[in-house]
Specification:
Blueprint: H1 21-32, E1 40-42, E2 47-49, E3 54-57, E4 66-70, H2 77-85, E5 92-96, H3 106-119, E6 129-134, H4 135-149, H5 155-161, E7 162-168, H6 176-187, H7 195-219, H8 226-230, H9 232-238, E8 245-251, H10 259-271, E9 275-281, H11 289-292, H12 294-307
Parallel strand pairs: 4-5, 4-6, 6-7, 7-8, 8-9
Antiparallel strand pairs: 1-2, 2-3, 3-5
Helix pairs in contact: 1-3, 3-4, 4-9, 6-7
């Protein structure tokens, strides 16, 4: 049985100023540019980029829009493939899920972001880009990527290509118990672990997260930016240049990312003049909207991309 330590999984961001991306980027890119380009291994209808953690479905039109699918914690590629399917007719699609077992701090997401940039965005010929992200794992990946783009030479050109964002079950400020529930389910799935193991791990995580949150609150008494540096939700709230067009797909009964928290984020973006679209359900659980309402979900996403 795989041993999992509490310190191996931290459902938070410890984002410093975005300039701290630069040393890491220089080390990785300095090595990469002295080597050959990342290897692309072709399958029947896709390209496996690099080590196989990313799957790029390249459209025959090199100028076709690129859709970035960033999965939720514990998401299997076969699940993302279902979403990619309704995009692939007209767009190129990248499927990627940050491995929650490798997440210890925001530095983990920065490495994921660098991989996406180096292997995909740096050489893309797409004229427009859209990001479709799931839960806070997907949001954290995008958040790190968006900060990283501020450090690259063609920052303005690349950011201008991002035409819209699709949020599925996010973004939200999750409680320690909600974060523990999401991570324990992802790392100890019912198919492999007993409920007793999962609930025990959940309690351990909840205690850890509660202690961490208390420390953050204490520091906030003299450090006004501490929440932004430690939680992706607050980091994204502070971003003033997110793509203007945004689609939110969420539910009133989501027990992980609450509708109330998502709507607070929406209100903040509306104040920044973002153009907001919503697809709201009363009967779907966290990241389960497409499973129960496939036609409505697909139509909303395709319409959004075509209009944005």
């Amino acid at each position: 049985m795989q041993r999992i330590r509490v310190n191996d999984v931290v459902f938070m961001l410890t984002l410093k100023q975005h300039r701290k991306f630069q040393p890491l980027r220089m080390r990785i890119f300095g090595r990469a540019h002295n080597q050959t380009s990342p290897k692309l291994m072709s399958t029947a209808n896709s390209q496996i980029v690099g080590d196989g953690e990313m799957r790029l479905m390249q459209h025959s039109n090199p100028d076709a829009a690129l859709i970035l699918l960033f999965g939720w914690a514990g998401c299997n590629d076969r699940y993302l493939a279902k979403y990619a399917k309704f995009y692939e007719k007209n767009f190129s699609v990248l499927r990627f899920t940050a491995d929650i077992q490798k997440v210890r701090s925001f530095s983990s997401y920065r490495k994921f972001a660098l991989d996406v940039y180096e292997k995909i965005l740096e050489t893309t010929t797409a004229l427009s880009i859209y990001c479709h992200m799931f839960s806070m794992n997907g949001c954290s990946t995008f958040c790190a990527l968006w900060d990283l783009l501020d450090t690259v030479a063609d920052c303005e050109v690349l950011k201008s290509k991002f035409k819209g964002l699709i949020f599925d079950s996010s973004p939200a400020y999750v409680s320690p118990w909600q974060a523990a529930a999401a991570i324990s389910f992802a790392l100890l799935p019912p198919s492999s672990y007993s409920k007793t193991w999962r609930e025990t791990y959940r309690f351990m995580l909840a205690g850890y997260f509660s202690l961490h949150r208390s420390m953050i609150w204490l520091r906030s008494q003299w450090d006004k930016d501490v929440y932004e540096r430690n939680y992706s939700y607050f980091r994204m709230l502070a971003m003033k240049d997110l793509p203007k067009y945004q689609l939110y797909i969420y539910s009133s009964i989501d027990s992980i990312c609450s509708a109330e928290s998502i709507e607070q984020f929406i209100a903040s973006e509306q104040e920044k003049k973002a153009v907001i679209s919503k697809l709201f359900f009363d009967d779907t659980l966290h990241c389960q909207h497409y499973r129960l309402h496939p036609d409505e979900y697909e139509q909303a996403c395709i319409d959004f991309v075509n209009k944005a």
